Amino acid sequence: MKHQQIDQDGQNSDKVIALKEADTRKVNQSRDHVFSKLNNLTLKKLKDQVIVITGASSGIGLVTARMAAAKGAKVVVAARNEKALMELVNELREKGHSATLVQADVGREEDVNKIAETAIKEFGHFDTWVNNAGISIFGHAMEVSIDDIKRMFATNFWGVVYGSKAAVKHFKERGVPSALINVGSLFGDRGTVIQSTYAAAKFSVHGWTESIRMELEKEKVPVSVTLIHPGRIDTPYNEHARSYLNKQPAHRGMIYPPEAVAEAILYSAENPKRDMFIGSQAKALYLVGTLCPRLTDKLMEFIMYRTQHANRPSKPPEDSALYHAGYGLHERGTNIGWIRSGSMYVKAAKHPIFSTTAAIGIGVAAWAAMKRKK
Question: Which GO cellular component terms, listed alphabetically, does the Swiss-Prot or TrEMBL entry include (predicted)?
Answer without folding.
Answer: membrane
